[in-house]
Amino acid sequence: MQEITIYDIEDNTLTNLVQWDSDVKIFVKEDGIDAAYKVHFFNCKSVDAMVMESTYANGVLSTVIPNDLLRDSHPITGYIYVEKDNEHKSVYCFRIVIRKRPKPANYIYTDQTEYITFDKVLKEAQKYANDSRDYSVKAKESETNAAISANTASQKANEAINSANAAKVSETASKESEDNAAASKDAAKASEDNAAQSAKDADASKIAAKESQNAAAISEQNAKASETASKASEDNAAKSAQDARESKESAKVSEDEATKSAIAAKESQDAAKISEDNAATSEQNASDKANEASTSANTASQKANEASNSATLSKSWAEGDTGVREDEATNNAKFHSEQSKNSSELSKAYLEKVEQAGNEAVDKIQNALDISAPNFIVDLSTGHLMYSGERFAFLVNKAGHLEWGLIV
């Protein structure tokens, strides 16, 4: 424990004060003091130390001595309670001698609001309780938003899967249509080739029929010429006539074959046209299916992106750290939950202080009642009412009424 020097408001060393002084500020300048630490004050009659808040600026700590202690003539001891590096201990101390004197006639009892009073502790406890409740509500809202975003992410993911499956089906159908188009093209080419060959065969049959017809005519002419030229040639003429008839019949057969070939060529040509139309239809179907596959793939990609965005938003509402919302660092379920927990713990701690401060106040009142009772006498020379008893204070208000209070 290090005993230190303290200073008054005029930067003079402070070692002595006078009883009934009030609102006295002290200043501490120590290298080891680097923050606004609490200062504990007490005297030999204190049951508990009075804890005062302090301020710290430019290397100087300042606080106010409790007026309650200045009403007594006992020396005051102060401890600076340092909270640093996970340690909480009284490191520095100082002492102030109080010179006794009678209470001034115009002394006004004022509340010492700077130290941790029952009322202050109660208000802070209520504040932290309210903060805890507010943070709990906000945490619940963030959890709800996170759940909604998570459900949306799940829905978008399912939609992405369905679109991907549709794209796969369309792609398969497109491939089948493409294969059918290729087969139809091949069939159309084969039909076209068959039609061309049939047409050629028909033309060849027509030519053969024409040649047979011409040969029959020539034979018929030769037969007539032979019949008029010589009777001896009658047999030859008859034979030539027979040959002419056979050539004519052969020409008729060739003509029939040519007709059949022409019909076959027409049928082949029609089949080629049908195959060509089927090939065009299959090709169009293949193009349509390919477009459907591309659309489904794009939809799947879009749904996947939406699912990813919803998942990110869900994380933002749950714990932040995504960069998708401006205030997500302080507006998410995790943050509000932690704040609610901290406020709840502080509320509990301050409620304990409320209970302790209340008990202490009751004890002090009881002690005052037990220790001192006011003693009144009338000063016959002046007519003044005189009293003694340090635990009680009396004051005549503006209305002329006598008011009293209890010094605790």
Give Rg in angstroms: 59 Å
Number of strands: 14
Overall pLDDT metric = 78
In total, how many domains does the architecture comprise?
A: 3
Question: What portion of the residues fall into strands of 2 or more residues?
Answer: 15-25%
Q: Summarize the helix and strand pattern as letters.
A: EEEEEEEEHEEHHHEEEE
Gap from first CA to last CA:
30 Å
State the shape: rod-shaped
The portion of residues assigned to helices is: 55-70%
Major β-sheet, in short? 6 strands, mixed
Structure report:
The chain is of the alpha+beta class and 408 residues long. The chain has three domains: 1-115, Sandwich (Immunoglobulin-like), CATH 2.60.40.10; 139-319; 372-408, no CATH class. It is 59% helix and 17% strand. The protein contains four helices and 14 strands. The protein has helices at 67-70, 118-229, 234-319, 333-371; strands spanning 2-3, 6-7, 16-18, 25-28, 38-42, 50-52, 55-57, 60-64, 76-84, 87-99, 375-379, 384-388, 392-396, 402-406. Strands 1, 3, 5, 6, 9 and 10 form a six-stranded mixed beta sheet that branches. Strands 2-4-8-7 form a four-stranded antiparallel beta sheet, with no helix packed on it. A two-stranded antiparallel ribbon has the order 11-12. The longest helix has 112 residues, at 118-229. The chain is rod-shaped. It starts with a strand and ends with a strand. Residues 111-116 have low confidence and may be disordered.
